[in-house]
Amino acid sequence: MHADILTLSYSHEMLAYFSADIVIALLLLIIMRWVYTLWTKVDGTKELSEKDNFAFGVSVASSLLALSVVVWSAAEQASSDDYLTQSLQMLVYGIGGIILIKLGRWAHDKVILNRFNKREQILQGNVSIGLVDGANTIATAMIIRSVMLWTDGFTWYSGIAILSGFLVAQTVMLVTTRLMERRFAQDNQDDSMQDVLVRGQIALAIQHGGHLLGVAFAVSAASKLLIYYPESYVSNLINWLFLAMLFTLLTIVLAWVAKRVVLKGIDLVREVDLQHNIGVASIEMALTIGVALVLLGLVS
What we know:
Blueprint: H1 2-40, H2 44-50, H3 54-77, H4 83-112, H5 118-123, H6 127-150, H7 156-187, H8 193-198, H9 202-223, H10 233-262, H11 268-274, H12 278-299
Helix pairs in contact: 1-3, 1-4, 3-4, 3-6, 4-6, 4-7, 6-7, 6-9, 7-9, 7-10, 9-10, 9-12, 10-12
């Protein structure tokens, strides 16, 4: 009888904990939608239902999915025997995730793809820009997840470690994007990849989005080989950067080999860059992400 009472009490506590976390998750999603509205400075309902702005919808969807990834990670990382404290940790991690996702979007706008106004392009319905924005946002969330799970505890040290991993991720995505731009210019008579994206080249957006997501999983793979030292800020940052670049380079090389094998006899430059072949670009994206996932699985 005593055991039954304890089980019932435990079940009530668990139910209250799950209910609180669900409320927190819904609250965070509302906050994310509100933050996105502040960024665009438009009526989201009008853009989605009246203007049928597909690019806007893709961008909003990616933001909500990215936040869901962060909340999922926060729920896993929350470590406390007290349910109230666990819910508080989830809320703090969730809000921190929203801030980092916003910072990642800002860095992508102002530093990585800095030759156009992404907000204006999305509001004009440029689906290719919406796809790249979505891939970047989800990639940022996946990297935040890997860093959150890499850290230990709920302290200032873990916060600094998460920020360090985020900075490394943005650096790697910047380097990867510049390499892709250089490759595109060489194959297309010095044309600009960013200018072509503005012209609405969806196949190129899918291809580049695959590279961004591949980078996210490559950086996640790097975290599996790193040991977390709470007070070693500099060494954590250097080790993150070194291994993230190494795994990103390895992903790019292996993906190149996979594309040459799987898509043998197909001129990828002609099909994607010139003929805007969305099917071929989608296969390229799948192969890039697939290679990165295989590497992540091998080191996990």
